[in-house]
Amino acid sequence: MGLLQVIKREVGFTRSLKRLMNQMEGIDKEAPTLLTDDIEASVDAYRDRPVFWFEGESVSYGEFDERANRIANWALAQGLKSGDAVALVMENHPDFVAAWFGLSKVGIIAALINNNLEGKGLAHCLNIGSAKAIIASSHLADRVKAVEAMLNGEPALWDWDGTVGANLNEALSAQSAERPSREHRQDLRGADILFYVYTSGTTGLPKAARISHTRARRSFRIAITTCDLTPADRIYNVLPLYHVTGGFLGLGGALLSGASTILRKKFSASHFWDDAADYQATAVVYIGELCRYLLNQPDHPRQNEHRIRVGIGNGLRPDIWQEFVERFRIGKLLEIYGSTEGNVFLMNFDGKIGAVGRIPKYLEKKFGDVRIVKFDIVSEAPIRGSDGFCIAAEFDEAGELLGKIDENGPSDFSGYHDKEATEKKILRDVFEKGDAWFRSGDLMSRDREGYIYFKDRIGDTFRWKGENVATNEVAEALSQYPGIATANVYGVEIPGTDGRAGMASVTLKDGFDIAGLRSFLSENLPPYAIPVFIRHQPEAETTGTFKYRKVDLVKQGFDVSQISDTIWFVRSGQDAYEELTLEQHGQIRDRSIQF
């Protein structure tokens, strides 16, 4: 890169960073200003403009606010008060946003439940959030009803048409559309909790990450300056609103800038470009898997008719980045990095392919609360020197990314609802006695220009279909199936896909029948957590401390040409496993069979 190019890059980087910092100015965890106040100010400024486009209809900012006000007044009528929690079990819909916005007007925490969950996983999430009431989409309310016996505190179930629970629409029609008094939230500050957002973490059932108003206010602003959003923009958002990428980055930038969100219940590769063109989208929110799905589709007649000038998201792998930009003629993709529960945020302002962010040398002191440290893959722990402290990773060396926790500073680390789970994410005495750092669980590297690259996840969690899959949860479900003695779960790579597909190595006992396994797992796990491959091993391989060995299994994957064990797999959309043949293995490798 020539000198002029370097100067141009640095000027652009510092300008972008300055704009972002200006957006964050004044956000303080001790301040009384909440995200709710930000959105109400936006409503007052853009009342007659569309806030949502959904299923052919538009919703104005004013209509959205009135709907939220009815939710708030309904909550008060139910005797709910500031600090209580209400769970939302819903698909993408304008009412999903109106519900949590309305609850926040009176200081109530919204627990944003993954709408793929059912059974024990769903009950667990409802319980750890201590939900006093549950609002469910009509077609999801049956799942909640099915786990009522597992719930603590007998929370009332409401659905929008009263098919299963109490009729929420009917109840809202009796409530005032006037904005409730701010007195209902006057005692809250930025550090107080706005949302519970669920993450599988590294092990076990999902955990409830505590998202403060301060954290949300920052996240909601990221897209405004980085994407240069104005009220004229329309952001196409097909990602689930219960996750940070779709619900914070995608939705937040629109809500606080006066722009519109083009909302769809769920992603559809076949409808994507029609929607983008018909609704005149100017920006898009993505995850890497979404981009790969679109690339795997045949050319669409309208794939270049859109007006999308920028995309913001995460998980876009270098191998498809340039192809995606060129084929679909999207001017700029802004890759970001962050975790639901963490305090580290990185951003690739200039679109450097493969990078998730950048900390140039001249800004190291300013970003001193973000470090990459040497890491031991075998012990799965940072390496400490002779003085007992961690050691900074060298340039281009993979190490664990850490974020400093400073209770007296601007740190956004609120941890989980579970204190024990929170403590497991904290590393102490890292660079000096008494300090504390958030463990991201991610291996990253940094080059000499300051660009940071994601390398891999640490431990037992892998990512598939845009979701984190906890191997212990999957193994527990498998072990409940008749005939399975042990289950060792891990992720394997499939050509042409992002993340890792679930694979389980099982040992068997009498009574095992592969024919019923897929159906059984669908009743106990969300779709993305169901293993794609099942391998039958005569005997489980364990370490000296009786931990399952996974490294060799991951390397072997599902290569039936090298493995004598029987392997079964399940195709996308199929309801039963079938034995994997050499021919099918080749079809998976050449992408004739896709997942």
Brief rundown of the structure:
InterPro entries: AMP-bd_C (IPR025110), AMP-bd_C_sf (IPR045851), AMP-binding_CS (IPR020845), AMP-dep_synth/lig_dom (IPR000873), ANL_N_sf (IPR042099). By secondary structure, the chain is an alpha/beta fold.
Q: List low-confidence stretches.
A: none
Please identify, by name, the CATH architecture of the largest domain. 3-Layer(aba) Sandwich
SS strand fraction: 15-25%
Helix tally? Answer: 17
Q: State the helical fraction.
A: 25-40%
Helices and strands, with pairings:
Elements: H1 3-24, H2 35-45, E1 50-54, E2 57-60, H3 61-77, E3 85-89, H4 94-105, E4 109-112, H5 119-128, E5 131-136, H6 141-146, E6 156-159, E7 166-167, H7 168-173, E8 193-199, E9 207-212, H8 213-226, E10 234-237, H9 244-257, E11 260-263, H10 272-278, E12 283-287, H11 288-296, E13 310-314, H12 318-328, E14 332-337, E15 346-347, E16 355-358, E17 370-376, E18 381-382, E19 399-404, H13 419-424, E20 426-428, E21 436-446, E22 451-457, E23 461-464, E24 467-470, H14 471-479, E25 484-492, E26 501-508, H15 517-524, E27 533-536, H16 551-556, E28 567-569, E29 578-579, H17 582-589
Parallel strand pairs: 1-11, 3-4, 3-5, 4-8, 5-6, 6-7, 10-11, 10-12, 12-13, 13-14, 26-27
Antiparallel strand pairs: 1-2, 8-9, 14-15, 16-22, 17-18, 17-19, 19-21, 20-21, 21-22, 23-24, 25-26, 27-28, 28-29
Helix pairs in contact: 1-8, 2-3, 3-4, 8-9, 11-12
Polypeptide structure, described:
This protein is an alpha/beta fold. The chain has three domains: 31-337, Rossmann fold; 346-457, Luciferase, Domain 3 (Luciferase, domain 3), CATH 2.30.38; 461-589, 2-Layer Sandwich (GMP Synthetase, Chain A, domain 3), CATH 3.30.300. An eight-stranded mixed sheet has the order 2-1-11-10-12-13-14-15. It has a seven-stranded mixed sheet with strand order 7-6-5-3-4-8-9, sandwiched between helices. Helix 11 links the parallel strand 12 and strand 13. Helix 1 (3-24) runs antiparallel to helix 8, helix 2 (35-45) packs across helix 3 (61-77) and helix 3 packs across helix 4 (94-105).
